Amino acid sequence: MAKEHDISRTVVRGHRTIRRVAFLLALSAALSACEKPEVPHPPMPEVTVLTVKPEDTPVTFEFVGSTASSQQVEVRARVNGFLDTRLYTEGGLVKKGQVMFQMDRKPFEAQLNAAEAALDEQKARLWTAQSNLKRVKPLAKANAVSQKDLDDAQGKVNAAAAAVEMARADVDTAKLNLGYTTINAPVTGASSFARIQDGAYLNEQSGPLTYVAQLDPMWVDFSISEDEMLRIRQQKKSGQLRTPGATALSVQLVLADGSAYPEIGRIFFADANYSTETGTFLLRATFSNPDADLRPGQFVRVRIEGATRPDAVLIPQKAVLQGAQGHFVWIVDKEGKAQVRSIEVGSWQGDNWFITKGLASGDRVITDGLMHLSKGTPVRIGTGASGQPAAKPAAAAADKPKTASD
To answer: By CB distance 3.0 to 4.6 Å, which of 153, 243, 252, 263 could disulfide with 133?
Structure first.
């Protein structure tokens, strides 16, 4: 009996131990459930910054223009007659004085012969009148003839001399008309197609035979809008823009395929009035065209260089954002946190943007890594950060193109 009692006591102690262990495990689990898990801190956004450094920056203005011949002359017939033959290659280059058309010469040669014969006749009459005057003069001195006879003889000489001059003028006119039957190129340049064919009769109503366009030099016409002109004047007055004067600016052309024309042009003409139809102001530049690479009627991009923006702030366009309150940029403040800065923008310069207000020297503008920014967020400046201003645009970079409709 004692042995059974000991076994019962041992079993009871085992159950108590098991319950105590279970309780401790449950308590440990409950305490573990109440503890908050440790949340890892998100990494700081990595950004690329550009340190603002104002400096004098060349500025380029770009417009759309078209080429025009510096002298385009219509070739017309000066006399009436039949066209014999065309003596030039249509569309080819011709030199000044080169024969382009030949009219029928025979009628004009006959008129010249008749005029020369009439001149000879008048010369003969003058000789007869002069001989008669020589005979009358001695007789008049001897009172053998009256003074009236002397006056009549002198009058006949004068009339005959005038008739000779008139006949000589008719000869000159006939020679001119005969010369006009050979139609020469008025200038050196490119010729157009013949508008009148061989054998046609030419008169004042026939119109031009063709035209010749001088190619060297070549003119380029382009227009600037009234708004743009007023804005440039205001910027010059406020000191935001410096220009050496229109005639001192250099002009470059970009052709339709994107290639740059090698010659540098100069502005030499500005129209007196704005166009009432387009509201634009016409300017004209001249270019040397020795190889005839430019032809009239081409559309080109005109780049005006030589102007400067003093102490300009230039940042990449990708760094400029726009919201409900206008344009703004993200900057890194002295504490290394991202902040928003409102700005005022000017014109484009290639892939960059002139900033007229809102940024000062030393400001660090964020150019990359803008997607995950919020105000006051600490940021880490990446290895791609730049402490220099935006790269100056190359010769191809320019302000936004202007058109005649701008």
So the answer is: 153
